[in-house]
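Quick entry, no commentary yet.
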Amino acid sequence: MEYFIITGCVIVLTVLIYGYIQNFFLKVEQYEIRSARIGRDVTVVLLTDLHGCKHGHGNSRLLAKIDGISPSFICVAGDMTVKNGKNTETVLAFLARLSAKYPVYYAPGNHEIRMPAYDDYRHRIQNMGIYYLENRVVRAGDHISIAGLDLPEYWYHKFWQKREISVDILSGQLGQCDSGLFTIMLAHNPEYFPVYAEWGADLVLSGHIHGGIARLPVLGGVLSPSLQPFPRYDAGEFIWKGSHMVLSRGLGLHHIKLRFFNCPEISAIRITCEK
């Protein structure tokens, strides 16, 4: 009996250690989406939820992984910083290196909009040539538009405080969706994905959930920032009436300084032309 107890403890400890060290291994997750609306294939890299963390000196490992993907452009879906502004200079230095190589489209998350020096942060990013999208839509080539959704803090809530967003609210923020273009929406909070799809987004890029902090086989992510156990949208690809959402596990840590079986994620989305 003692042997089985010791063996069981060793197995549990090994699993916990293995789950913990995955915090430090960046993983590139590959997705492919087909559409007749684009004229040529493009590769998009999604970054989100860095929270001021570093992967290598100056985020050199993160940049090297991105270079290995050779993206057409970069989409940032918010929370690269933390609300108290800690390590903001590290984030800005990384964004400067990134924007020197690639077109970058950035929509804020709930942490950016609560930073004391938010205006300064936004202006410095814009001065890098990054498209900072606060409820704004821009073209990215002949057949693609990118909409950056900037939701007020009201829309980030605990799961028992139900919020019902609508297409009319989104249209009031972003205008009408151009159905002739392939529309990518950068929306930090994935909770409202069906409404994003109803608005007209062909592809939604989101974060915020951190993969559910810990991930379990079959059950998926354990806990969302809204304290929802086993949230419906935790990580990966979701489809609603022909629209797709890629929900990244994110790149960093914040309130809970642990991730179990939940590697930091760089999302690489290949959008291919059906024609």
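second:
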Amino acid sequence: MLNFTGIGSAFNPEDGNTSAYFSEEDSFYLIDCGELVFKELLREVDFSIFSDLHIFITHSHSDHIGSLGTLISYLYQHHSIKVSIYHGGIHLVDFLNRVGILSNYYEEVMDKKLALKNLTFEWIETKHSNKIPCFGLLLSFKDSTIYYSGDARIIPQRIYHAFLTDEIDLIYQDLSIHPENTSHLTLKKLTDLIPESKRRRIIAMHLEENSKEEIEAVGFQTAQQREKN
């Protein structure tokens, strides 16, 4: 359902910064925009076919926001697109001001829940770093509902119960194979939480080096980055 420009954790640039996108008719939707994402988007996406563009930012770590300013400026100057940027409550404008992005290049939207054409979304507050706020993203399409964790060391209880009762079809979850990790959900915790029969509906992302085999061995899927030409 989602296309990934990258699936790597902050210290795994070989697999790119974790970022996903999808499109519907003439609308383009992007989740997060880390340092390496702009380059991948230019390689993968023809922005000339879209009339509006929507960017969701889960939190302000640089591997999730690092090339956002460049993308905003490029879209405005080269495609005359004023992007809409959605977040749950981060210091976005301060960041964009510091990197020189003019306020007329974008629209900031801080609604916690909103409908966009055939899509509805809701920000779900979660726990990642103690220093900054972080939000997961609940996305409902015409025929499916998914949860995208951003970065988080938990699955919020509301999301967990909705997944177990099949109200949520897929969870895209950042995942660490190291039990001592305190910023991301660990494979051990996720294995304890999710019954084996439901593990194929969890898609692990934000992956550490050489972690796919271990994650898939216990029944979870891993996100797939698009092949480079």
